Amino acid sequence: MTIARSRAWHICAPLNLALVGFVLFFAGLRLARPGTVFYYTEGPVLGSLAALESRGELADLYPADGWIEPPVVLTLYPPVYFLLAAGLDRWVEGGGTFLGLRIVSAAALLGILVLLALHMIRRRAPTAWVLALLGAALLTPGVYRVVAGAQADSLALLLTWVGITAALGTRGSRVRTGVLPLLAAATAFLCAFFTKQSFVAAPVAVAVTLLLEGKLRKGLFFFGGLAAASLLAVFLLDAATSGGYVANTLGALTGASGWASLGSSLSESEPLQWLPIVAVVLVASRDRLSLGFAELYLLGSVLLHTTAMFKTGSSVNYLLEPTFALLLLAVTRWAPGDEPTANESPRASAAGRVTTALPILFALALGLTASSATLREYRLMQGWLASAGSARVSPFEGYPLADAHFFPAILEREGRPWLNDPFAFGVLEETGRWDPSRLVADLEGQRVPFALTVVDLGPGPALPGVGSRDLVMAYFWRSRPVWTALTGSYRPMTSGPVTLWLPREDPEP
Description:
This protein is 63% helix and 3% strand. The chain is built from 24 helices and 4 strands. Strand 3 (490-495) and strand 4 (498-503) form a beta hairpin. Helix 10 (201-212) packs antiparallel against helix 15 (293-312). The radius of gyration is 25 Å and the shape is globular. The termini are far apart.
């Protein structure tokens, strides 16, 4: 390492360690509080794990009853993540808490960082450069919000990177054409697809790279074999669950889309944090870019996940794979020998100094953003802890209706929530893919023991034309049939951010 790069590393090191330390603190807090929801989609994931562990059958994880009989479970993820989490939950005796789910996610992210370091070392990428980028990337919401969270994304990304490492090795960017490397890569990609079905950019990039390199037969064989295996596995899972697998993972997705949902997701991703990463990588690598795997993988993942946000209005989780695809591009395309030599022209020497200074300037420029994000996240964590801490429920009979925040408290009392994802079922009700009449009947008949929510139901139901895109979490509670049945048959009791609804003695007609 040259003196200039050594100096760059020493300047960047404290800030990078601070950024990584924040992420590790956030991960440790989640692992230490296995009964607390920190991110809204963790609650539905925990409800799905509870469904799997009830009898240990996939049919319970992917019910085919049309979401009529309570408890109502909607599982959008394929089974690999849940099967690993259930096994780990039994091993650590987590008792159906978040512990097993979060350990899987935390271990997966550590595995990704190990593979990234391996690629960096074997390709001799500048340490300061990569660490500055990594420190910044870890602090983007699309990354730190899923670190040690009950989310399948980290595991799907790890399996994807295992496949990439098998296909490319750790030295170059050309796909290895041996049978064993391609078979190992296909196996890893297949497991990634059955962890979260949106992780398909990498295998497509491998196949296209083979075609561009003139290896037509191997490219077609790789892509065709992987596609056939995926379709066969989907068919077998759907048959084993009597149609429940496709209904949950694909049939439950809304057909609506809009720029508003995409804009909302991108806004939540804090563009001030991740846009500079994109700009710096592309500017610094502009002379080294080519139509190879790294570029195809980045382009494919960006298009795929941006389309997913446009289609479903989903969260910033969709930016996890593009962020690490960008890091792979930075490591892959930064060739050694960027330092100026004594024989170089003044212009080349100046360019070399600018290149060396990029990690320093980049890391320091993100310092204020990092600090502000930490403060914002601290307040967010306080809010989640406060609302979850208010959910101290007594033993009960029947299926309560609750926001995802309160699922751990309900499961702790050996109960099951009526719904495991109120937001998703709000979208389904809005688009006519779920009939709430059974829930409405149970509310009107006061068969639901209580309801818990942090949503302000307001003086009336949602106005005509106002749907889940506008009200997001609140739409389920304010959809006309649910709002009318709940407010007519239950009385509210408010404590802080939480509203508890108990059956009225004299239900309104």
